Amino acid sequence: MDYDVIIIGGGPSGLSTALHLQKIAPQLATRSLLLEKEQYPRFKLCAGGLTLDAEIILERLGLNIAEVPHVNADDIHFDFESKGLNIRFPKRHALRVIRREEFDNWLAEKAISRGLEIRESVTVRNIVPESNGVTVETDQGCFRAHVVVGADGSNGITRRCIFPKASVHTARVLEVIAPLKESLTTVGASHNNQHAYFDFSPIPDNIAGYVWDFPTQIKGEPMRCWGIYDTNILADEKRPQLKEPLAKEMSRFGFDLDQYEIKGHPIRWFSPENQMSVPRVLLVGDAVGADPIFGEGISIALGYGAIAARELSESFQRGEFSFRRYRRRVVGSAVGQTLIARWVIAFIVYPLKWRWFQILLWRVLKPIVLLIAWVFVLNWGRRLPQIY
Ligand SMILES: Cc1cc2nc3c(=O)[nH]c(=O)nc-3n(C[C@H](O)[C@H](O)[C@H](O)COP(=O)(O)OP(=O)(O)OC[C@H]3O[C@@H](n4cnc5c(N)ncnc54)[C@H](O)[C@@H]3O)c2cc1C
Question: 286, 294, 335, 342: which to mutate for ligand 1, most atoms within 8 A of CB?
Answer without folding.
Answer: 286
